[in-house]
Design a protein that fits this description.
- The protein is mainly alpha-helical.
- The protein contains 3 helices and 2 strands; from the N terminus they run E-H-E-H-H.
- The chain has a two-stranded parallel ribbon.
Length: about 80
């Protein structure tokens, strides 16, 4: 992204990263844990391929939680005003 672009509301579906297991670790190591969220492309594909990538990655529990739920919750605004 060009310098100065606010990417706080830019999210990517991990389904598009179907590939080597190491891609989730690489994304998290390079700041992607905040911008990616779990997706399966259901009903075209089942969720197992993406779930395997997340499960087998050597990432922190916080990063795993972000990819699996927190980023989607933040994107959808479900937690706004709840504190």
């Amino acid at each position: 992204m060009p310098d100065g672009v606010d990417i706080d509301q830019l999210y990517f579906d991990l389904w598009y990263c179907n590939g080597p297991i190491g891609i989730v670790l690489w994304l998290c190591a390079n700041g992607g844990a905040r911008s990616f969220t779990f997706g399966s492309c259901y009903p075209i594909q089942t969720f197992e391929a993406t779930a395997l990538q997340v499960d087998q990655s050597d990432i922190s529990s916080e990063q795993r939680r972000a990819l699996g739920a927190s980023n989607a919750i933040r994107y959808l605004g479900w937690m706004e005003g709840l504190s």
